[in-house]
Design a protein that fits this description.
The complex is a heterodimer of chains A (388) and B (134). With 388 residues, chain A is of the alpha+beta class. Helix content of chain A is 28%, strand content 31%. In chain A, a hairpin with a 5-residue loop joins β2 and β3. Chain A is elongated and about 90 Å long. The relative contact order of chain A is 0.10. Chain B is α+β, with helices and mostly antiparallel strands and 134 residues long. Helices cover 11% and strands 24% of the residues of chain B. Classes of the chains: A alpha+beta (388), B alpha+beta (134).
Amino acid sequence: MSRTLHYRETLVYYDGPELFVAVDQIGARYLCLSVQLSEDVDTYMSIPISLGRLALLKSGNIDLRSAFLGSETREYFLCDASAGLDQALSLRPLENNTVPESWLPQDGFYFRLSIQDGETENISDEARQRNRAIIHLHLNPPEAATESKINTDTLSQCLRIFQRLVRHCYRKTIQSVTLKNRLALDSPDHWTLRTFAFSPGSFTLHMESAAPADMHGHAEMARALRLIDKFAERFSNPDDTIQVLRENRGHLVASFRDFVEFIVDTATPVTYHWTMPELTAPITRVLPHHEAVVLRDLLRSRVELGEESIVVDGVFEKADVKSGAWRVRSDDSKDFSGRLDPDADLNLDGITLGNRRYRLHCIEHLEEDRSSGRELSELLLRNLEPLA
Amino acid sequence: MVADGQKDNADEGENTWLEDLPEGCPPEGARQPDNQIFYRLVSDPPRPQDFVSSRAESPMRRFSCECIARSTSIHANIEDCRGVTKLPRHKSKKVAKLVLPEESGMVKQTFHPSHHSWWRRRAFDPVANCELVR
């Protein structure tokens, strides 16, 4: 059967269509890449491509070279666009079905997700109508390739991780304000997200801040979102991201690491837009899967960045030499408990209970309770010094 | 409807377009850049031929839009411009930074977000106003 293609959409344009999608007589899709240009003829190399694989390409999960090298039918064709792309294009098989290296894209050409038409007006309208910070979180999991759907586990995991990230970012930003202002700002409403809608096209969640914006259109959640923006804008440069994370070490880094791990483990690139009534335009960040892979590996090698240090001065009320469990009443009458850090060269032998003060250097370890989704805190004692 | 600032093709000295533009070109939505930074693929060193339009480069080629064909592709994002050098026909090219003042012509965002079409004024010298990004 001789195949003819009809142009559908341009994916890359540079002084002419460099890469486009076309369909044949039975509706099968083809990816067409410009490989030669003479005075009046554009020659394109074409491969059949499934909707799913095309979605992986367009969402940045695979690069263009992989798309061509991994042709699903192992067929390669050529077509000439001498009469322009608005005419039917005749396919002819590539000789010996062998692709010259010079015709293949180099490694690393990935598509970046971009704002859809109408998105900016839509999100700004929502912010004004609801008088809150609004976040649109676009998820592109593999299962959304052909229709707007997402695995339930993926969705719930993303919501929990993103909410946790917002909470830790918010709490970090208010640490630097005066105590009086911190008491007013430290309300869960300022970091709590509520999902109020979905929209099709990938899988998009519409979320709002629980607390409304003030009379100037400012929402306190913006503190957290701006900090997340700082991490995300350097996503393509992992060393820069690590530098910014180093300035914010602790639970915040751990939650950001969890977000990056989520993108990698579920193969779900993320784009988000956010705004509040006082902003004239929404802010957008794109977090591609291939960049998350590189950053994830770097974060795994910098485990210490996610450690939250806690120092407690007080007296021991319990010290179990065998299990390593302990409990301390601090100088300001708060109770702290935990266990020995397995990696620390320390034991509780010889600890005086009751009336001897100690300074405990701990790491707070947060773990998610799978059944409730809540974070459970555990203190790991790393170092100990007696106090006068 | 034509874009604000468009002149007709009569010879008006420095306001003349580099090429003959069809009626209604540059299109509505095109604007004069205000010392905005863009990026274009060029030779090393850059030559005037690196900045000609698609139509000037391929006089016999068929384009679906003659107005776009008489523009030059530029990117607002350097990574997007660099990405094009990974494609088969552009592997040997280099990225140049261009600062486009008002008198350089008109630009409009076309195709994907970072790509812009640039309709040049005859008097503007792009080679003198670009530098290679090493």
